[in-house]
Amino acid sequence: MPELPDVDVYIEHIAARTVGHALERIRLGSPFVLRTAEPPLTALSGLTVTRVSRLGKRIVLAFDVDGRADDELYLVIHLMVAGRFKWKPAGAPIPGKVGLAAFDFDSGTLILTEASTKKRASLHLLRGAARLAALDPGGMEILGSKVGAFAARLRSENHTLKRALTDPHLFSGIGNAYSDEILHHACMSPVKLTSRLTDDEIRRLHTSIHVVLEEWTDRLRKEAGEFPEKVTAFRPEMTVHGKYGKPCPRCGKPVQRIRYADNESNYCPTCQTEGKLLADRSLSRLMRGDWPKTLEELEAKKTEGRTKAAPAGSFAARAASFIPSRAPAPSPVPSPPSSVAPATKPKRTRADVAPSAASASTTTSSTAPAPKSKRTRADVAPSAAPTKRSSTRTRKRAES
Ligand SMILES: [Zn+2]
After folding, report:
1. Are residue 119 and residue 261 in the same domain, yes or no?
2. Per the domain annotation, does 186 fall within a domain?
3. CB under 8 Å to 174, separation ≥6 — which residues?
4. Quick one: 233 and 364 in the same domain?
5. Quick one: what percent of the chain has pLDDT higher than 70?
6. How many A from CA of 271 to the centre of ligand 1?
7. pLDDT at 68
8. CATH code assigned at 120
């Protein structure tokens, strides 16, 4: 999924070509990409783009409607995993198969593509700032923030660092790739709990976030040339992300990985976990739901929940939380000798895992499948106390 550096560079290029220009028409290659019915896309015809901005990982084009601020229209594009932009001469055809939409300006045509069988990229057309705000997952913008505000947000919920950094409701624009890079830069374990961070560690993390995101935005800006065409989460200059088995650029030892579902996260044991290997199996037991099945799914479910005011106990309401409430059940099978349990063992519950046994099982997919324990209804049911807080928050956001 394109993260803050990629999205910001897209925004710079799209803004340079569209701000002050009129949108003549929108052509859809797939009707499913449009997730709103009112106002219709034709409402945008002839309107001028006033600015292009980022909302979480989404890109927002704002359109002036006769200078009436309350009626301003917003075209909101979420690229999800495989969505990409191309800039073509005006009237260029929508490419078959991957083409989702074309936005025809007098200056050229912005084409939205998605090279995946899973069509997840989305388009929303919204009228008024309140509706736009309802789509905001609420994550803090870290760049330019004060360390005190960052610390308060980081400590507002107790999660692993990996989960906290990639939660769009806590922080904006950071996903799997840049969280790997940030944690390596800060020499911090992805499974360290946010409640155990010292003030100094939080300062270091805050600095690393700035360094990594700013360096990467600069690098991508330089690489983009005419228009960013090669947007990918895996880049040769990355230190650990996508570098499993390759030498860590800092210490030379091989980079390790933690796999979950069809995703993986990379880290250097020497630089980040005091030499400890975070074995997939012990990790899946440790994480108990503090590890998103896939970040994209989590984000999609949670955003959906917020915009619809998720009912308490729904997937969205539960997904919004994952707050531990009970001690984990002891494992029926001892860990293999190679798997060294990380130093910080949080108390976690099955209720944290996931809304269903089916999805819970995917969190343990790895070379060595976790032992199957008998599940009871109570095991997967969310406990009332922790979800209450999150669903209240969910409703509050949805109402705003
Ligand atoms: Zn290293």
Report:
1. no
2. yes
3. 3, 4, 142, 165, 166, 182, 209, 213
4. yes
5. 69
6. 4
7. 87
8. 3.20.190.10
Asked if pLDDT for residue 398 goes beyond 70, the answer is no
Distance CA 150, CA 31 (A): 40
- The boundaries of the domain holding residue 32 are 4-134
Residue 102 has pLDDT above 80, yes or no: yes
CA dist 273 and 126 (Å) reads 45
Residues 112-130 have pLDDT tens digits of 999 998 889 999 999 999 9
Instruction: Establish if 140 belongs to a structural domain.
Output: no
Q: How far is the CA of 159 from the centre of ligand 1 (A)?
A: 24
Instruction: Quote the ligand 1 centre to 248 CA distance (angstroms).
Output: 5
Q: Per the domain annotation, does 142 fall within a domain?
A: no
| C-alpha torsion sign, points 142, 163, 294, 135 | negative
> Are residues 99 and 225 both part of a single domain?
no
State the distance from the centre of ligand 1 to the C-alpha of 29, rounded, in angstroms: 46
**394 — pLDDT class (breaks 50, 70, 90):** very low
What type of residue is 390? S
Between the CA of 277 and the centroid of ligand 1 the distance, in Å, is: 13
Give a yes or no: residue 254 inside a domain: yes
**Model confidence at 332: pLDDT above 60:** no
| Spacing, Cα 261 to ligand 1 middle (Å) | 25
Mean pLDDT for the stretch of residues 294-307: 48
242 CA from centroid of ligand 1 (Å):
14
Q: Would you say 363 and 357 are in contact if contact means Cβ atoms under 8 Å apart?
A: no
